[in-house]
Amino acid sequence: MTTNLSQFISEEIDLNTHIMWFEKSNKYIVVNDLLNNLILNRIDTDKFPINTSLLKQNKINTEKLKPIIDNIKNLLKECNQDYDKINPEQSLSITDEYIHQSKFKFNKRVVKIEYSDERLKSLIDPKFNHLKCNDKEEIIYKVLERNEKINLFKNNKSLGSWGSKKMHEFQGKVSMELTSFFHGMSDSDWTAVFHGSTLFSGNNCLMLTGDSGSGKSSLSAILMANNFALIADDFSPMDDKGIHYNFPSAISIKEGFYSVAKKLYKSFSELNEYYINDIKGNVKYLADNSDKSVLSSNCNTILNVKFGASLKNEIKSINKGTALEKILPDAWISKDIKDAKAFITWVKSSMFYDLTYNDNDEAIKMINKIL
Predict the structure, then answer these.
(1) In terms of domains, do 343 and 210 share one?
(2) pLDDT at 290 over 90
(3) What is the pTM of this model?
(4) C-alpha distance across the termini of the chain, in Å
(5) Which of 51, 183, 216, 249 is the most buried (most CB within 10 A)?
(6) Do 148 and 105 share a structural domain?
(7) Does one domain contain both 18 and 141?
C-alpha cells in the first residue's frame, strides 16, 4: 500500500451508497459503489488495476476513466493530509475587573460567567436568561476582550482567544463547555455536534436540519406548541451511543415569524428583542418553560426542512448519502476512530427525510405520521 493512510473506514450506508472516513484528515466522503471500489483499488495498490468486468457492467470506457482516476489520486492525497486541528490563539492573562456577571442553573448544576463589559455579555446571556439563578456556582468562566480578541477562561485557566471573524467558533466553544458542564461530561465524551434542532414527543425523537433561514427554528417553535419538548435548538450534541443531549438554549425567533409566534405563545410579546446583525436582524429568544424537559434521548429520525409559500406540503425519505451531503459541512465530528465508527453506526440506524411545507398544520400532521 503506497498511500500510507494510517486508517480508513468504508461502509455501505444505503443502496449504491458508501461512506468513507480517513483518520489522518478526519474527512468523510460519500460515494457510489463503483467509485468506492475504484478508491479502494487505488488505496490497495500503486498500479491501480482496472476491474474490466466492473467497467463493462457500468458501461464505462477506459479512456473516459482516466480523469476519474486522476481525481481519485488528488482526493486521496487530500485525505492523507494530517488533520488540521483549529487551535484558539494564545490568550491573555486575567487582569481586568469583571463588573458584569450571570449565573445559570440547569440539571441541578450552576455555572457563573463573568464579563469585562456589557457587549460581551450580550453574546451569551440572551439565550440563557430563562436559566438565571442566584445559587452558589460550581464553576466560573470569565470573558474579556483585549486587542480586538475575545478571551475565555475556565476557573482562571485560559481556553484561548478568538478574533472578530471567528465569533462562531467562540460561541461554539462556550456552547460545548456549558453542555459538558451541565451534563457532567468532558470533551472526549462527545462524538458529534450537529447544526440541527432536536425535539421529543411521547417516545419519539427527531432532529430538524437545514440551511440558515430554512425555517427549522420556526418549526421547532411550532412543534413545541404542539406537545413536543425541545432538547436542543441549532446545536445538537451526540455521544458515541447515538444519544442526543439537551442543550438548554432558547429558540432564536426572527422577526418574520413574530406574528405566528404571538398566536402560539401568549407571553411572546413580552419577550425582549435583540439585534444580532444586518443579516439576521432582530430576534427574540423563546425558551421551553414547560414541564416536558428531556435531558437526553436516542434520535434516529432526521428531517431536512424547507419552508416556502410556493412549496408543496410533502415529506419523503431520501438516500442517506444525499442527506449527509447537506449535514456534514456544518457538523463537528470527533477525529477519534471510535467516534467515526459510532457516527457511521448512527447513520446506518437512522432514517432521513426531506420536508417541504407551506402550511404549519400540515407540517405537524406529516411529522406525526412518520414518528
Answers:
(1) yes
(2) no
(3) 0.89
(4) 46
(5) 216
(6) yes
(7) no
Cell 425523537 appears where? 205
Cell numbers placing 164? 472578530
For the chain, give the longest Cα–Cα distance: 73
Same domain, 225 and 109: no
Question: Range of 159's domain?
Answer: 100-184
Percent of the chain at pLDDT above 70? 87
Nearest CA to 102 among 151, 174, 150? Answer: 174
- Check if the beta carbon of residue 24 is closer than 8 Å to that of residue 84: no
At 211-263, the pLDDT tens digits run 888 889 999 999 999 999 999 999 999 999 999 999 999 999 999 999 999 99
The torsion angles phi and psi of 113, rounded to 5 degrees, stand at -120, 125
What is the 8-class DSSP label of residue 335? S
Residues 249 and 341 grouped into a single domain = yes
> What is the pLDDT at residue 42?
66
In a domain, 3, yes or no: no
**Average pLDDT in the 19-39 region?**
90
Residue identified by cell 406529516 is 366
Q: Note whether 20 and 115 are same-domain residues.
A: no
Residue 90 belongs to some domain of the structure:
no
Task: Write the DSSP assignment of 13-40 as a string of letters.
Answer: EETTEEEEEETTTTEEEEEEHHHHHHHH
